[in-house]
Design goal:
This protein has about 475 residues and is of the alpha+beta class. The protein has a single domain, classed as tRNA-splicing ligase RtcB (Alpha-Beta Complex), CATH 3.90.1860. The protein is built from 17 helices and 20 strands. The chain has an eight-stranded mixed β-sheet with strand order 1-2-3-4-5-6-14-13, sandwiched between helices. Strands 8, 9, 10, 12, 16, 17, 19 and 20 form an eight-stranded mixed β-sheet that branches. The protein has a two-stranded antiparallel sheet with strand order 7-11. Helix 4 packs across helix 12, helix 5 crosses helix 12 (about 280-315) and helix 10 (about 245-260) runs antiparallel to helix 12 (about 280-315). The longest helix has about 35 residues, at about 280-315. InterPro entries: RtcB, RtcB-like_sf. Monomer. Its cofactor is Mn(2+).
Length: about 475
């Protein structure tokens, strides 16, 4: 008899190691799957994640199954760590299954520096980064543009940054989609969204967004690490942020419009936060174009932060950033919906693959993987907490068949921000990280540090172990924090 678990009336059957299924029943259009070890499953079941995952299977046209990654936790309507692929012709597209921070994502910049080169200069570097990389709520960015600037960024993405000398051709070549969604439609982004974005270009924002200087501590796959240009004790920089207020406004605008224009579909869903527009409808096409424009905005946002970071390293280390080897390893989105072709029961189908808090993880040979990595597979960057370290993975051979080419996006929260501020004192967390772990943290407030304390996250080692053992994202290297700045 199959091993089963039940949480709040939701029954899961264990299909094999780390794979649990919620069988299809009632209004579900497909089963749902949770990819987790026993300890992670207990944490995932501790909030509304399982109910939200089950609800997601009610989306019209959902293919195969909805999936929850090992870092999954409760989100807005659709769980964070969720993947749902809907038919691009007969299905739907759901802003709630993408999230408010469109193209929240992460990039890693390599350097030729080693930890020995940096040791003793941590405070100088963290202070300089904090002073020069805009962060926190509200406005202020690397570029103070007007609406015309924003519209050009929305249309052209990283190509705009290249023209204005904020990026190199090599940067574009090492970014998902080369940093440009050509199906962007800036005219479908509201004036309010553009106004919110015009003074936020090149800023981290707040919450869990950060810039972290790290050192490579472990290499698990020598061949892939060499292809990625990573070695032990190397210094790298991780940048995690998204589309700021612009992306949030795009999501809000289209959720409201769906409520007004597609109430019939909304009434058939178990949660109004799953609001979706039918594939092929005018509203679906407009949302897709606006979302792609916000995706471009986020890529430029991270590129401008990269530009400013390179300048800081030049001043601190007294060499040009090119001589310091500060090249982009990869930039990958983890809040996104994209038209992709996948095998569904032996048939190639075009799908809207919604990844919300999930990272694309394509294996070797897939044409979307940058040419530099096509023979080994796509780099996958998995941030942990600011006290635990992060991972670089490579797209696994089983990702396409198991998860529509996806894996986890981080450690995943186990505690709300409100609870975290009750449990932790920001200054204490900061001092302990410095004194006990030689990790230097600087943030806009102690509350921000408390909200992001290492204790509020799942065990990233366990999340990555599950991904690796399932073959959806394979371990390449592990990194450990040196300096961290937060909004």
């Amino acid at each position: 008899m199959n091993e089963t678990r039940e949480y709040d009336g939701i029954r899961l059957e264990k299909l094999r190691e780390h794979v649990w299924e919620i069988p299809q029943e009632g209004g579900m259009n497909a089963p749902a799957r949770v990819l987790a070890s026993e300890p992670l499953l207990e944490q995932i079941a501790d909030d509304r994640t399982l109910q939200q995952l089950k609800n997601a299977t009610h989306l019209p046209g959902i293919a195969k199954y909805a999936v929850c990654m090992p870092d999954g936790h409760q989100g807005y309507g659709f769980p964070v760590g969720g993947v749902g692929a809907t038919d691009a012709t007969d299905g739907c597209i759901s802003p709630g299954a993408v999230g408010y921070d469109i193209n929240c994502g992460v990039r890693m910049v390599r350097t030729d520096l080693t930890y020995d080169d940096l040791e003793g200069r941590e405070e100088e570097l963290v202070d300089s980064l904090f002073a020069n990389v805009p962060s926190g709520l509200g406005g202020g960015g690397v570029v103070e543009g007007d609406v015309g600037t924003v519209e050009s960024v929305l249309d052209r993405g990283m190509d705009w940054a290249l023209e204005h000398d904020y990026a190199t051709r090599d940067d574009l070549a090492h970014c998902e989609d080369e940093g440009q969604r050509t199906d962007s439609r800036p005219e479908f982004v509201s004036q309010k969204a553009k106004d919110r974005g015009k003074n936020q270009l090149g800023s981290l924002g707040s919450g869990n967004h950060f810039l972290e200087v790290q050192r490579v501590t472990d290499v698990f796959d020598d061949e892939v690490a060499e292809a990625f240009g990573l070695v032990e004790e190397q210094i790298v920089v991780l940048i995690h942020c998204g589309s700021r207020g612009l992306g949030h406004q795009v999501c809000s605008d289209y959720l409201r419009r769906i409520e007004r224009e597609h109430g019939d579909l909304l009434d058939r869903l178990p949660d109004k936060e799953l609001a979706a527009a039918p594939a092929g409808s005018r509203l679906a096409e407009e949302y897709y174009g606006a979302m792609c424009a916000a995706i471009n905005f986020a890529w430029v946002n991270r590129q401008l932060i990269t530009h400013r970071t390179r300048r800081v390293f030049e001043r601190v280390f007294g060499e040009d950033w090119e001589d310091l080897g500060m090249e982009l390893l990869y930039d990958v989105a983890h809040n996104i919906a994209k038209r992709e072709v996948h095998d569904v029961n032996g048939e190639d189908r075009e799908l809207f693959v919604h990844r919300k808090g999930a990272t694309r993880a394509f294996p070797a040979g897939r044409p979307e993987v940058p040419r530099a990595y096509r023979d080994v597979g796509q780099p996958v960057i998995i941030p942990g907490s600011m006290g635990s370290g992060s991972y670089v993975l490579v797209g696994g051979e089983r990702s396409l068949s198991e998860t529509f080419g996806s894996t986890a996006h981080g450690a995943g929260r186990t505690m709300s921000r409100t609870q975290a501020k009750q449990e932790f004192w920001g200054e204490t967390v900061r001092d302990e990280l410095r004194d006990q772990n030689a990790i230097y943290v600087k943030a806009q407030s102690g509350a921000t540090v408390a909200e992001e304390a290492p204790g509020v996250y799942k065990d990233v080692d366990e999340v990555v172990r599950v991904s690796d053992e399932l073959g959806i994202g394979d371990k390449v290297v592990r990194t450990y924090p040196v300096c961290n700045i937060k909004g």
